[in-house]
Amino acid sequence: PERPRCRFSRSAVDILRGHGIAFDYVDVLEEPEMRVAMQARWPTFPQLWAEGVLLGGSDAVRELAAQNELLDAIRSSTARERAALALLLSSPRPSTSV
Questions:
Q1: How close are the terminal C-alpha atoms of the chain, in Å?
Q2: Taking Cα atoms as reference points, which of 48, 49, 83 lies closest to residue 67?
Q3: How far is the C-alpha of 51 from the C-alpha of 62, rounded, in Å?
Q4: Which pLDDT tens digit goes with each residue over 32-57?
Q5: How far apart are CA 70 and CA 15, in angstroms?
Q6: What distance in Å separates the CA atoms of residue 62 and residue 57, rounded to the nearest whole number?
Q7: Prediction pTM value
Q8: What are phi and psi of 50, to 5 degrees?
Q9: 67/45 Cα distance (integer angstroms)
Q10: Could you tell me if 61 and 9 are in contact, meaning their C-beta atoms sit under 8 angstroms apart?
Q11: What average pLDDT does the segment 51-66 reach?
C-alpha cells in the first residue's frame, strides 16, 4: 500500500521496501471476511506470509530484519520454516485448565 493506515503496517511495509522485497497485500479494513479468516491463525495485523508460511507480525518482521534473517526467511524454505517455528514457540499457549 502507498499509505498504510496502521503504524504497525507502515513499519512492516517500510522494512520490506527497505530490503527491496516485492510483496502483495490485502487491506483487512476493506475486506472484513479476510480479516476474520486470518485472525484464526494469528490475532494481530499485519501478518507476513511467504510461500504459504506465516512468518509473523510487524514485530517478527522487525526482529528478522534486525538479525539479518529477513531475506533468508523470504527466499529459503529452511529459513522460512525456522522463522515460523520460532513464531509458534513464542506465541502464548491456550489455557488447558480443567
A1: 45
A2: 83
A3: 19
A4: 998 898 888 788 889 898 888 888 88
A5: 9
A6: 9
A7: 0.77
A8: -135, 120
A9: 21
A10: no
A11: 91
